[in-house]
Amino acid sequence: MSPLVITLLIVGGIFILIAIAYINHMVENNKLEKSRLKAELNDRIRRSATLSEALPGQLMTPPLKLLLSRLQLHFSERLQQVDKGDADNQARLTELRQLIAQGESIPVRNPPQPIATEAKAKEVRFQLENLHGQITRSAQDGVLPTNEAKAWINEIRHLLAQLHIEFFSSLGQQALQQNQPGQARLAFERGVQYLRKQSNPARYQAPLQKFEQQLARANALVLETAKSNPEEDSELNEGLKSLEGDEDWKKNNIYD
User: Fold this and answer.
1) Tens digit of pLDDT for each residue in 28-46?
2) 109-156 confidence digits (pLDDT tens)
3) Distance of alpha carbon 195 from alpha carbon 201, whole angstroms
4) Measured between alpha carbons, how far is 123 from 54 in angstroms, rounded to an integer?
5) Separation between Cα atoms, residue 27 and residue 30, nearest integer Å
6) In 10 A of CB 32, how many CB atoms?
7) pLDDT for 255
8) Contact indicator for 208, 196 with CB cutoff of 8 Å
9) Which of 4, 21, 183, 253 is 20 to 30 Å apart from 241, CA to CA?
10) Is there a contact between 222 and 181 (Cβ–Cβ < 8 Å)?
11) Helix runs in the chain, H state only
C-alpha cells in the first residue's frame, strides 16, 4: 500500500471521527433545546391555567377566562409539536377546544374571595402582575395582537382598581364594626385618594362618591368619640401604603 493511500485513509478516518463528533454534538444540542422548549411551554401553560383557576370570582370575567384558555391552547398546540406522545397534553387540548368553542358563554366557576386583609390583597395583586406579564410577553412573541394586548393591559389596571376598592372598603367596614372610627376614616381616606389618582376618574365616580360618604360618616364618628390611638393609625397607615407601594410594573410597559 502506497504512502499516499495510507495518508488518504488516515485523513479520511480523522474526517469521519470529526463528522461523528459533530453529529453527536448536534443531536445533544437538539435534545437540550427540545427539553428547554418543553419546560418553557409547560411553564407558560401552568401559569395561564393557575391564573384561570385561582383569580377571585369577582375579578374573573368570561372574556378573561376565554383569553387565558386561548393562551393555554396556543402553548399546548406548540407542545404537541415538540412531544406528540404527551397523553396529558392531548386531553388538555380536547378540553380547551371545547371550552373555547363556547366563546363568551364559557363557564366561569371561580368562587368569590373576600379581599379583607393585607396578605390577601398582596396575593391578588401578585396574580394581576403575573397576568400583566403573561399578556405582555404574549404580545412580544406575536401570540396576541398588539391592539388586543393594549386593551387587556387597560383592563388589568381596572381589575387592580377593583382590588383596591374592595380592600379599602373591607378594612373600613371592619374598623367600624370594631368601633374604631379613626382606623375606618384612614381606610376610606386611602380609598378616596387612590381613586382620585386614576387616569380615568369618571369610570370610578360611583365608588368614589361612596368612599366620600363613608369618610364623612367616619369623620363624624371620630368627633363623637375619643381620639384614636396614634400608634394604631400609624400601623394601619403603613399596611395600606405597602399595598399601594411599588406598582412600577404598571408603568414599565412597552405599550404605554
Assistant:
1) 677 777 888 899 999 999 9
2) 999 999 999 999 999 999 999 999 999 999 999 999 999 999 999 999
3) 7
4) 11
5) 5
6) 10
7) 41
8) yes
9) 253
10) yes
11) 3-54, 62-82, 87-100, 118-140, 146-177, 181-196, 205-224, 230-244, 248-251
170: cell is 373591607
- Single-letter code of the amino acid located at 24: N
- Could you tell me which of 44, 233, 237, 230 has the C-alpha nearest to residue 137? 44
Assessment of whether the complete model's pTM goes beyond 0.90: no
Rg (C-alpha) for the chain, rounded Å, is 28
Angle between helices 118-140 and 146-177 (to 10 degrees): 180
Confidence (pLDDT) at 247: 54
Say how far apart CA 139 and CA 142 lie, in whole Å.
Answer: 5
Instruction: Write out the three cell numbers for 5.
Output: 493511500
- Coil, strand or helix at 26: helix
Residue 62: strand, helix, or coil:
helix
Task: Classify the C-alpha dihedral 41-45-47-48 as positive or negative.
Answer: positive
Express as a percent the part of the chain with pLDDT over 70.
84
* pLDDT number for residue 248: 54
Q: How far apart are CA 203 and CA 182, in angstroms?
A: 28
